Structures are given as structure tokens and as C-alpha cells.
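A student in our group prepared the protein record below, which I am reviewing. I have pasted the whole thing underneath without changing anything:
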Amino acid sequence: MEENGDSPDKKPFVRHNGWGPPFHHLQVTAWVLLIFIGVTNFAILIPNLPSQWRSPALSIASVLYATFVTLYIVCTTLDPADFNVKYARDAKAKQFDRAQRPHVIMGGHCYICDVQVGSKSKHCGVCNKCVSEFDHHCIWINNCVGSRNYKLFFGMISTGLLTSCTVFLIVVVLIQKYVRENNKEYTAFNGPISSNGFIALVALIGLLVLAACFLLAHLVGYHVWLNLKGLSTYDHVMLLRARQKSANNKPENSNNEHRSIKTSGQKRNRVAPATDTQPMELESGLNVLPPIKR
């Protein structure tokens, strides 16, 4: 027996946290970079620092890196689902038929999760579940960010920014050392490495962490701004879409008025070209998320 298109042999997919497949390619990229930067920083960069820099750099980098990795794992692991979705053991995700209902969440009831949800909960189209106080779906952790893990997420990106800045500072010091001591041998994993190979590796790491610094600084600044404005990422995206819709409507209306004035004195059998495209409608009160990714 089928209910809302659901069948016993085909249960709709629900992602409980960021460790559930399918993995996003940027999530896998984050894992690779995290391991690469961590290994090269502690096995190559810091051991080649001037002696007076090694202990402070090792202490600071260790604390920041460990904190960042811990927060990344926690943010990926936590399930930010709405309380009723998370603890309704008998609730199963169902197929949604928009022909029957205009919105997934109506009257506080989600017709996919089939439970009552909070007033600020939204249904994520990527994870296929309602998330309490939904902010956005983060592709770097392959998990939603909501009330349960938002503070941890903000701590993660802030710590990531500090870690990237620290590694970049180490890179700058090593480049200065290379310029002063061009012919000196360097070490990698307790073995020798040529100066050319060393500086090439340092430059590569520098470019990677510099890019990370810019991206994370933008992300941290954006979330600081959102908090000052009392907005979530979802709220901001919806506002931008509403403004875009309004901007798209204005030229259309203006063109229609201009066309009407221009053709008012011409022959009545002249027809203006029809337009095939119309501004995209933004549903008022939309509760089904187009995946908001960063």
C-alpha cells in the first residue's frame, strides 16, 4: 500500500549527519587539505623555523589545529534535525506531491517528515529532513547548520581562520629565511630536502593557506554581519531573492508602459513582440529549501 507516493521497497533518503554518503566533492577536498596542511606544517615547516620560533609556533599551531579538527568532526557528526524529527522513532520520510499541497510545511506540520515541527524549522532538500532554526546546508561538512550546531560551526570557521593565518605567518618566516640562507639544506620528515624543493613546497602551502585565509575571513565576516542584523543565512538568501524578483519586475513593467506609449499612435494591427520569459515567482512562506550551499 502506497502513501503519498511512498512504497515499502523504496524509502526516501534521509541524511542524519555529514558522514552519510553520498559525500560532496568539496567535503572530500576539505579532508585532503586538512591532512596535507597538518602533516606538512608539523613535519616540514615548523622543524625548519629558526630555533627561537619553533617552540612558540609548535604550541600555538598544535592548539589551533587540534581545536579546529575537533570542531570540524563535531559539526559534521551532530544531527541538527528538529527535535520532533530526531526523536519520532516511528516517523519515516515520505514522498511529497506538490499537486496536493503547495508547501511541505503547513500549519507547523511537515508532510515529508510527517511530524509537527518548530516555527523556525525548515526542510532541507539535500538532507531531506527538517532542521531546527535552519541557517544553511554547508557542503564543506556535508551537513546542515542549525540551532544545535551553529555556535560550533562559527567556532570552527573562526578557529580555521586563525589556524590558516598562523601557518601563513610560518610560511612568511621560512621564505625570509630562504632568501637569507639560499644554499642551506633543509629537512623534511627528518631527512634532507633540497633548497629548491623546499621553497617550492613552502610556496605551494603558502598559496593554499592564503586562499583559505581569504575565504574564511569572508565567511567569518559574513556571519558576524548576519548576527548583528539578527538574520540567518536562509533569511538573507530569501531577502536577496525577493529583491531580485522586484528588480526583475520593474524593468518588465517599465517596458510594457514604454511600449504602450510608443505604439498608441500607430496602426492598431501592429503587434509588439511577445516575451517568453517571466520573472521567477518566489513562493510566500516557502518552507522547502532549495539547497543553500557555501
Notes: The chain has six helices and ten strands.
